[in-house]
Amino acid sequence: MNANDATTLRLARPDDWHLHLRDGDALRAVVGASAAQFARAIVMPNLRPPVATVEDALAYRKRILAALPEGARFTPLMTLYLTDRTSVDEIRRARDSECVHAVKLYPAGATTNSDAGVTDLRRAAPALDAMQAAAMPLLVHGEVTDPQVDVFDREAVFIDRVLVPLRRDFPALRIVFEHVTTREAVQYVEHAEGDIGATITPQHLLYDRNALFAGGLRPHRYCLPVLKRETHRRALVAAATGGNPRFFLGTDSAPHAARLKEHACGCAGCYSAPHAIESYAAAFEAAGALDRLEAFASFHGADFYRLPRNVDRIELRRQRWTVPDALPFGADTLVPLAAGETLGWKLVR
Ligand code: DOR
Ligand code: ZN
Q: Which of the following is catalytic: 252, 303, 325, 332?
């Protein structure tokens, strides 16, 4: 039977190659949702203060494991936050640690908790050199921070101003262009030479920028990089469903208390963890490409990170259900992506 007519969908268990788990009560509130869906996740280091050393990463990993619900099986893959001061020794320790799998570049000021980020990539050159030698991937938040550049153009401008020179200077550096949102980024990743991958979020596959203003301002659809025009969304769907191993799943699930998003200056980040695979299934089904979901969700990322593919399987059932309006988040609540909307697939095991 064609996968698009099936009532059950079985996939190798997927991994989330870009996830924000936070810390403390927030961590305890969200980690179980990711563990119910994914075997592993690349965990972002943008805590306050950032996860900047292997020692920080090991301690954070312990807190994540301690916060897991009874019986959950989940492997957090840790990352370091690249700063102007990241040393060559720290990169070597990361390489030898077996727990740190990548280093994240946030241009200073680009997004949530990025003020410790890199102010000038030249300052990070020794660390980047060491990463290149260690085959340690650099994960990039690909947006320029120049206030003169229109917010909808910041990703495309980043390619020319930052990514192309960076890859010229460090041609063997393994790179993941995180949460790509534009046709320009898709085309760059498709044609670039060398070792490059890209993650794609569910929100950028399901919504275009009109969704931010549908009937009024929609803060729970606001993330960075911000949603783009429909032409870009279509390019992302084509990339995700096209079978190219450079593109893989990364939710960028980024929880913020509802009151901080429904705010005069609302936080960026969409919380998609509890229904992530169902959201991707919706996007793939709409494109008539459910048979391509497994490779995108479960194979391409593991292959890029040189980790074994998962052998256990998950099962989705064709079933209409409504995403909850709100979820508990410590003393707060959390409004998930697609709250109140109907999805056509449900994870059953
Ligand atoms: O929307 C976003 N939220 N984009 C990011 O890059 C960071 C994230 C967060 O940590 O909340
Ligand atoms: Zn992120």
A: 252
Q: Which helix (H) or strand (E) holds 81?
A: strand 75-81
CA-based torsion, 250, 180, 63, 52: positive or negative:
positive
pLDDT digits (tens, 9 = 90+) for 249-282: 999 999 999 999 999 999 999 999 999 999 999 9
Selecting from 3.50.50.60, 3.30.420.40, 1.10.3210.10, 3.20.20.140, what CATH number does the domain 13-311 have? 3.20.20.140
Q: Do residues 285 and 344 lie in contact, with contact meaning Cβ atoms separated by under 8 Å?
A: yes
**pLDDT tens digits along 271-316:** 999 999 999 999 999 999 999 999 999 999 999 999 999 999 999 9
- Residue 249 CA to ligand 1 centre (angstroms): 16
Condensed to tens digits (0 to 9), the pLDDT of residues 19-60 reads 999 999 999 999 999 999 999 999 999 999 999 999 999 999
Domain chopping of the chain, boundaries: 13-311
Q: How far is the CA of 19 from the centre of ligand 2 (A)?
A: 6
